[in-house]
Amino acid sequence: MDAQLIAALVAAAVAAGFVDSIAGGGGLITVPVLMLAGLPPDQALATNKVQGSFGAATAAFSYARSGLVDLRKQLPTAAIAFAAGVAGAALVTALPTQALRIVLPVVLIGIALFFAFKPGLNDVDRAARLAPGAFALTAVTAVGFYDGLIGPGAGAFYMLSFVTLAGYGILKATAHTKLLNFASNIGGLAAFALTGNPLWALGLMMGAGQMAGAWLGARLAMRIGARVIKPLLVVTSSALALRLLWQML
């Protein structure tokens, strides 16, 4: 790849890191540009896992520094997300992923409508519907497995789980989502690295862009909270649903 193309990919990673640190969906930007750069789908997805891990880690660290999440307490839950991500990626050829892709746009549109029209969604915590252990073994396992198996929209699914089941406010849910997103992403990468042949050098360069974008996005989210997170989550979920529908046509 020439320098101009690499620079364009790094710029796309900055934008993706910014969006992903607030509402998820950064892969909407990076996967298409990687494929436009000439990478086959499997290699684009694997390389995307490399660079996306840096953005998720940066966002998780930024939110932790602000006191919104205790990384040490969340490590057992992150370990479950990692294991689930490995399992999902390992079974990608054995399960009917195409059937899931057909249902996925409908689910994502439902998530967008929920965050757009559900009254009272703000940064205030509410009563949890599941105890932390039950939440980790059900919602986190399911979303982590999905992240390794398919991936798009995993951040939105984590967000929805934290808000509806754990009772978290929008900003706190976003902060806790990032470490789990990082963990299941790394789990998926561990399996993809064996079969997807990621471009490690390119992934690392784009990872630097992801870190810059994620740092900026996390700072904005912490400053404004639900007022920026909710609309961006609605936009990214809707855009991902439309992209998946377009791919099926």
UniProtKB/TrEMBL annotation:
It is a multi-pass membrane protein. Keywords: Cell membrane, Membrane, Transmembrane, Transmembrane helix, Transport. The chain crosses the membrane at residues 75-95, 102-121, 153-171, 191-216, 228-246. The keyword Transport applies. Belongs to the 4-toluene sulfonate uptake permease (TSUP) (TC 2.A.102) family. GO terms for cellular component: plasma membrane. This is Probable membrane transporter protein. It comes from Paracoccus sphaerophysae. Coiled coil: none annotated. InterPro entries: TM_pro_TauE-like, TSUP. It is found in: Cell membrane. Pfam families: TauE. It comes from the Bacteria. The keyword Methyltransferase does not apply. Its main location: membrane.
